Amino acid sequence: MAGLPRRILKETQRLIQEPVPGISAVPDENNGRYFHVVIKGPAESPYHSGMFQLELFLPEEYPMSAPKVRFMTKIYHPNIDKLGRICLDILKEKWSPALQIRTVLLSIQALLSAPNPDDPLSNDVAEQWKANEQLALETAKEWTQKYAKDKKNNIQ
Amino acid sequence: MDDDEDEFDTSYYYDNNDDLDLEKPKKSDDPEYFEYELLKIEDVERMLNEEVEALCTSLKIAPSLAKMLLHAHGWRRSQIIERHQMNAEKFLVESRIVADKKNISQVQFIFSYGGGDRPGCFLLQEVITGTTHTCSICVRELSKSEFQSLSCHHIFCNECWDMHFGIQISKGLTTGIECMGSDCKLLVPEDFICSILKDPSSREKYFKFSFSDLIDSHSQLRFCPGPNCSIVVRAKEPKSKRVECKSCKSTFCFRCGIDYHAPTDCDTIKKWLMKCADDSETANYISANTKDCPKCHVCIEKNGGCNHMQCSKCKSDFCWMCLGEWKTHGSEYYECSRFKENPNIANESVHVQAREALKKYLFYYERWENHAKSLTLEEQTLKNITTRIEEKVMNNEGTWIAWQYLLKAADLLKKCRYSLQYTYPYAYYLDRGGRKELFEYQQAQLEAEVENLSWKVERAEISDTGELENLMDIAEKRRLTLLKDFLEV
Asked: Could you identify which of B146, B268, B397, B460 might form a hypothetical disulfide with B142, taking C-beta atoms 3.0 to 4.6 angstroms apart as the criterion?
């Protein structure tokens, strides 16, 4: 992992030494800027007991530019589209170099606990969420059982 | 000149009409009159600097601060001075120029490399006590002199600031660059950026983009939208009036910068253009480029701007818009421009209402699009006229100077057609009632005159000068009457 900025090394070190509860982030063997992330579905959310795989990439300009994060596990969520892209302000216009990988992952975990259908990325999911929340929650639970239990179901 | 008497008659009639009026309408008469000046970049820079200096002296503040205030408050100096005098600190905080004191002592630093996830409190005095400090962004320990912060006390090393500015500028941001602290909205002043930013190409971009930001924030100024044109227009009042750039010849609306659109206002034309962009596929499909002759059903392609069509096969005269007989299109009965709404629409089903709404839109769209097409065809007409004049002069039918009236007529025709095109979005959004009826009446009158003029321009002989000038005068008067009554600025 030579050639990586001190900032990235420090962050990686701490992510491994003091992991965030419910989140694991491991750098790729061949690329220190690429992280394999697993987020545990928060309790009291329809994603409970699911293990969601994500990929996180630190671009060349990091930390001046936000990390790129994507869900690899299929998930039924109004702010996540079918390609796994996430609608989260701190990944876009609210990014600040003072934020870190762990703050980003914590925010994504929080997004699973509190979906926001008023700022949707996936329109049909958001509409379903607003029209019949109960049914949407059921679907989210079903998808969690179907896709977030087995690694083979990852989005490619 | 085969009929002397006729020629005499018309010219006599026309000498009474002040046709200078046509070229340069008086200030009070012309609803399109607009005072503006075209400035070069240097002039604008000088002008803006003077405004900045004036604010500096009255508020006794630094130029970079004055510039930020002017930019943030649309260059309304008296308002800025007033608010500054009322409560300077509050005003500067609201303008995101100075940090709120309340927040400084309790700035929450999420970024901490030790001690759990609880964000640590950050105090400048507490942190930089020794000779070195660790930058919270690049995590390097550097000498104290390598660090800077704004009034919010979010302290970072110069190298990180430099990178931050470079990235923001490459995204097109300049006057809007904020502090790097998370959730910190404080704006970074120009002199702070200039003292740190190293890369020459980023610096150049910064000056270029921030200058255009300043112009955009100034209600009296607008960049000419012409490609690669660097002229800036200045007008005392930011009205939606026609501006012509002498340098690149583009004409546009001063207020919104898109193509001039009288009598429609800026918001309406935007709405209309968006609607057209959304629905154009359907509309294009429905209003195809060709129509069949209503009598002999031969397929006809429109090749001139005039709506008065004459079938080359059966010689019948008809109207391109309604396919009705042209005879019925005298000015009093010209109704092609008027959409007839179904009076019982409220009682119909949703389905029928939707179909009726589409019908209404297509009605206006077709006419709007038709004038747009005619306008481009009028360009062709202009070329044809030039070659025709050359031929006529070669054949000794009138002198070249005498024929110039035809070019003037074609030019006026373009102007009238242009205004007419922009009457359709206006009519589309106008509520039913007396005002709409009046508008559509005047629109129909202008339509009729424009068609008369268009027909004549394509066929004029040298002996028609008088008649054509008469038509020109009427058409322009109709156009001005309509604009005078309906152009709201």
From this structure: B146
Which CATH number does the domain housing residue A101 bear? Answer: 3.10.110.10
Tokens of B483: 């604009």
Q: Do B163 and A100 count as a contact with CB atoms less than 8 A apart?
A: no
Structure tokens at B317: 């005269």
Are B199 and B280 found together in one domain? Answer: no
The chain A residue lying nearest B161, using CA atoms, is A64
Phi, psi of B4 (to 5 degrees): -65, -40
Which among A8, A152, A10, A156 is positioned nearest to A72, based on CA atoms?
A156
Residue contact A97–B140, C-beta within 8 A: no
A23-32 contact pairs (CB < 8 A, 24+) = A23/A102, A23/A105, A23/A106, A23/A109, A25/A56, A25/A101, A25/A102, A25/A105, A27/A1, A32/A1, A32/A4, A32/A8
Global pTM reads 0.67
The alpha helices in B323-422, defined as continuous H runs, are: 350-394, 400-421
Query: Scanning every residue of chain B, which has its alpha carbon at the shortest distance from the alpha carbon of A18?
Result: B116
Interface residues on B facing A, Cβ-Cβ cutoff 8 A: 109-111, 113, 116-117, 136-140, 154, 156, 160, 163-164, 166-167, 180-184
Contact yes or no for B111 and A6 at CB 8 A:
no
A14 touches chain B (CB under 8 A): yes
From first to last of the 489 residues of chain B, give the pLDDT tens digit: 444 444 444 444 444 444 444 445 456 678 888 889 999 999 999 999 999 999 999 988 888 889 999 999 999 999 999 999 999 889 999 999 988 877 664 443 433 333 333 333 333 434 456 788 889 899 888 988 888 888 888 889 999 999 999 999 998 889 999 999 888 889 999 999 999 999 999 999 999 999 989 998 998 999 999 988 989 999 988 888 889 999 898 999 998 888 999 889 888 998 888 888 776 555 554 454 567 777 777 667 766 667 777 777 777 788 877 777 777 765 555 667 767 766 666 666 666 677 777 788 888 988 998 899 988 888 888 888 888 888 888 888 888 888 888 888 988 999 999 999 999 999 999 888 888 889 999 999 999 999 888 888 888 887 888 888 899 999 999 999 999 888 875
Q: How many CB atoms lie within 10 A of CB B153?
A: 19
Number of domain units in chain B: 2
- Are residues B277 and B218 located together in one domain of the fold? no
Active-site positions of A read 87
Other CB atoms within a 10 A radius of the CB of residue A156 amount to 5
| DSSP state for residue B187 in the 8-state scheme | B
- Judged by CB atoms closer than 8 Å, whether chains meet at A5 and B138 is answered as yes
How far apart are the C-alpha atoms of B60 and B419, rounded to whole Å?
50
> SS3 for A38?
strand
Between the alpha carbon of residue B173 and those of residues A59, A145, B69, B187, B417, the distances in Å are 20, 45, 17, 11, 41
Residue A156, domain member (yes or no)? no
What are the catalytic residues of B?
A: 306
Residues B91 and B213 in one domain: yes
Boundaries of domain holding B410: 271-285+336-486
Q: How far apart are the two ends of chain A, measured CA to CA in Å? A: 26
C-alpha–C-alpha distance, residues B382 and B411, integer Å: 8
Say whether residue A103 is in contact with chain B using an 8 A CB cutoff: yes
Q: Are residues B212 and B359 in the same domain?
A: no
ipTM above threshold 0.90: no
Which residues in chain A touch residue B112, judged by CB atoms under 8 angstroms apart? none
Render B201-247 in DSSP notation, one character per residue.
HHHHHHHHHHHHHHHHH-TTEEE--STT---EEE-SS--S-EEE-TT
